[in-house]
Fold this sequence. Notes:
By secondary structure, the chain is mainly alpha-helical. Helices cover 74% and strands 0% of the residues. Helix 3 (32-58) packs antiparallel against helix 4 and helix 3 (32-58) packs across helix 5 (106-131). The radius of gyration is 20 Å and the shape is elongated. The two termini are 23 Å apart.
Amino acid sequence: MSADQGDATADTARAAKDGTTGTNDPARATYSKRNLWSGFLFGVGLVAFIDEAVFHQLLHWHHFYDLSTSEVGLVSDGFFHALSWFATIAGLFLLADLRRRGALWQLRWWGGVLLGAGAFQLYDGVIHHKVLGIHQIRYVPDLVVYDLTWGIIAVLLLVVGGILTVRTRRSRVRVG
Length: 176
């Protein structure tokens, strides 16, 4: 086996480990932040969509804004849904651009997805549910189980996303 073949084999093994098959290191280094932001926006949009579809529409547990009439709650759900799709589509446009440039760093992108999902979940649980009180997860006498579950899921998403993001820091990319 020649030295070039050995280098190619090592690069392929490293790419598979880092989730970077089909990309080159200089492009990954250049677009490291864009990979993270694309995933983050997609993660925010995805979790907001799941929240809207499951808790607002299917289970009817709450609206985005529950401090007024049902009609106002439905309108607020519409705005919330539109904003969540805006974040999702923006993340997907960035993803398409990264793929076009050969700069998609899958592991870093997934780290961004988990960070975005966890950040939205934590923000929703703390700010919307507790600080502003514009809605609760569910209107039952004992919210502790719901609040803990919501918060624990948010923290787990943030931790795993943070680990993936740290593992794929730009400084760890071999350039040149």
